[in-house]
Amino acid sequence: MSHRVEKKIEVERPLRAVWDGLPAFLAGAEVVDRRDGELLSWRRAEEDGDTWTASLIALSPKRTRVDLAVDHDPASLVERATDALGAVDRRVESDLARLKAEIEAATPHPG
User: Which residues in the chain show pLDDT less than 70?
Assistant: First the structure.
């Protein structure tokens, strides 16, 4: 049974800086949809076809919200059990926190 995990985070950088920082998360991924500066969807073979979609929303000239959605379809009993314990939710939260930290560290503060 598949389900969707959705998480959001705000990054203290302009939308373009966040967009330009996304490729670091795409190593070994197949891009399945791309709308420049707005949306990026990808899959990685090692994730059994899970689809990740990052949507970017400019909250101000210096602040961007990243909405990350993961369509997850656990294949095995073990995956379903770990999924029930919130493993995918924690991974998405962790990836968002890492994205925020990396982008904010790599680009100058816009203030």
Answer: 1, 47-48, 74, 76-85, 111
**Contacts with 51 (C-beta within 8 Å, 6 or more apart), sequence order:** 32, 41, 42, 43, 70, 71
Phi, then psi, of 108 in degrees rounded to 5 = -65, 150
* Residue 15, CA distances (Å) to 1, 39, 49 in order: 34, 11, 28
CATH of domain 3-106: 3.30.530.20
Read off the pTM.
Answer: 0.84
Cβ atoms of 17 and 107 within 8 Å: the answer is yes
Domain ranges across the chain? 3-106
